[in-house]
Backbone:
């Protein structure tokens, strides 16, 4: 993705725990610069008190939204209206929608129709319609860092969100085939982009791997090859091929 992407970060405070804030903001900077940062909620409610302590240090602007009607989520409406205002202001070219609520599915779709890149973040409970409406969706559970260390100095392995099932293997194999040249080799960067288009919530971290390369290397169904980059001896290009 473009590194100078200006991103509007809009957080559903009623729906997202404050414990993810540091890792969440760090993750967003991988995709661009968060130039607008807002969180929505009824700040008179006690359940949002934990958010108040971290907003200032992360320069996030709280937007007050009272719940006028029982059973209706006023926070969602305020966030959607604000998103459209930001869209028409033409101050950003990307959005990070932080919520586990499917109510933002239409918003994500509308923003992408307008040419915006949309990153979604939420917990594993997030419904599929919102996930597939985003260009990329990141589960917050994989971002939370484990600060505790085992007595022997090694970190306890974080529990994987998903197992590598035959369905996952087939997704990888099909994507390699789709991106491959006549000899069956595919540039791993192209494969990764293609996988995301097919399944926006695909992330190697969901399976316990920091990057896509070690994930592929761990699987016997694929062979890997490193090639020198043209006019540069410092960087290697990674290619992958399905084994017969």
Residues:
């Amino acid at each position: 993705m473009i590194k100078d992407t200006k991103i509007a970060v809009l957080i559903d405070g009623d729906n997202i725990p404050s414990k993810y804030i540091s890792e969440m903001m760090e993750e967003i900077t991988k995709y661009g610069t968060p130039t607008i940062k807002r969180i929505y909620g009824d700040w008179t409610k006690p359940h949002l008190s934990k958010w108040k302590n971290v907003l200032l240090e992360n320069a996030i602007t709280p937007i007050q939204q009272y719940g006028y009607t029982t059973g209706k989520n006023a926070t969602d409406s305020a966030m959607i209206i604000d998103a459209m205002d930001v869209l028409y202001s033409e101050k950003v070219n990307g959005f990070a929608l932080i919520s586990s609520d499917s109510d933002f599915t239409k918003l994500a779709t509308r923003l992408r129709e307008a040419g915006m890149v949309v990153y979604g973040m939420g917990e594993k409970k997030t419904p599929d319609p919102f996930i597939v409406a985003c260009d990329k969706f990141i589960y917050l559970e994989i971002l939370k860092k484990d600060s505790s260390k085992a007595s022997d100095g090694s970190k306890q392995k974080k529990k994987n969100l998903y197992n590598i099932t035959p369905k996952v293997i087939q997704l990888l194999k099909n994507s390699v085939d789709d991106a491959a040249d006549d000899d069956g080799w595919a540039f791993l960067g192209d494969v990764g982009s293609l996988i995301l288009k097919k399944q926006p919530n695909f992330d190697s971290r969901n399976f316990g791997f920091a990057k896509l390369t070690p994930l592929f290397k761990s699987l016997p169904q694929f062979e890997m090859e490193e090639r020198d980059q043209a006019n540069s001896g410092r960087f290697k290009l990674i290619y992958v091929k399905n084994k017969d």
Q: What stands out?
A: Residues 146-157 have pLDDT under 50 and may be disordered. Residues 151 and 157 are 14 Å apart (CA to CA). The beta strands are 6-12, 33-41, 61-64, 94-98, 117-122, 136-139, 185-187, 222-229, 232-242. The longest strand covers residues 232-242.
